[in-house]
Amino acid sequence: MGEIDETATQRMEKVINCFCKKPDAVARLICFPWAGGGSIHYARWGNVLDGSIEVYAVKLPGRESRAKEAFFQDMQQIVDEVIGVLLPELREKPFALFGHSFGAMTSFAVADALKRVHNLEPVHIFLSGASAPYSETRIKAPKRSELSDEDFLKWLMAIGGTPPELLANPEVLKLFLPALKADLHVVESYRYNKPDRPFLSCPVTCFDGKQDIPHDLQAWKDISSGDFTVRMLDGSHFYLKDAENEKIILDYITKHLETSEMDYL
Q: A Pfam family name for this chain (predicted)?
């Protein structure tokens, strides 16, 4: 038994970053990184949120402690790994999903598989900075992962959120660009047909930056029969890195997860 437990623990630590273990938490928040992103930004939310919410930040291959691993090539690999590691935990207590941009797509893909294959669903899904995968806006979006490095950098500078010192440092960029392009390749090749009817029943909240390029947030309404809310905050694509916006998001998540426990019971 010991060996099995150790292996499960090692797999968990490889895929999930949890800064602050909270065995008595009423709910878990599973957070998915943006394209090229790591787990630290979300993992520290565990230190900020009160004891009722435990934060699991997903770590993808090709970055952080997994830097030597090959990038995933498609969405199914992400879904299989995350669910393979987290399934026992997700059955144990209520959970919610949060993802920004590429992370919104991965959280949606995970929610879809959890419902279809395991008949499990989150108590809330928080989607940020992204159009629904089947919306026209998303389907017609240009393929950024196919750009040359030079054009790709121009695009990165245009959307904002990437520190200028990073863009000016060729060595750091060499490490950063492959992860970003790999994630964009995954999301750009991900296909999902518009649902005939909602497959979830939990509330869905969409956050977005007022100055970001417009996303088709309303299309997310099709995934669930639960309450649907849109919250627009000041800022461009990485509006959620702003301390004030982050506080608004975390207060909102806390309020909704603490009350969702009542519904779960």
A: Thioesterase
